[in-house]
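Handoff note, outgoing to incoming analyst
You'll be picking up this chain. Sequence as last confirmed:
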Amino acid sequence: MAEIEDRWLSVDEICKYLGVSSDTVYRWIDRFGMPAHRMGRLWKFKRDQVDAWVEAGGASADSSKEDVGKDSKK
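Most recent structure output, in case you need it:
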């Protein structure tokens, strides 16, 4: 049973798990280093890696850095 729990998740599955759209997931991979692995044309995810990324701040930590840069330009 542990094999099933530790399987690779698809984009649709990780979207459902996190409650976000696929556009958001692709943006997080590209801009914020979301842990994802390319397998041919498909992206796959390990739930424990994504959980650790989210708990470490994930996209929220990087988006706050972008906001700081925007404020300094004013």
